Amino acid sequence: MLNLKEILLDIARAIVDHPEDVVVVEQENQDEITLVLSVHADDMGMVIGRHGRIAKAIRSVMKAAAGTCGKKVNVEIKD
Fold this sequence. Notes:
Elements: H1 4-15, E1 23-28, E2 32-38, H2 44-48, H3 53-67, E3 72-78
Parallel strand pairs: 2-3
Antiparallel strand pairs: 1-2
Helix pairs in contact: 1-3
């Protein structure tokens, strides 16, 4: 079974300048997991990307990872 929280932490830490400030909060319902990603204020642009492309790519990777364990995942990026 994959640890989706750790996967998101690894992805986010790889693309930001302040990896020590990356925090992921996991909220789980029956078959749905919501991951709330918080990063340093200076790194917000790196996580979102131009026109939201990086954020969309992160969500796509996380949905693919969650599909292997039969769960639905939502990734929220907190301001």
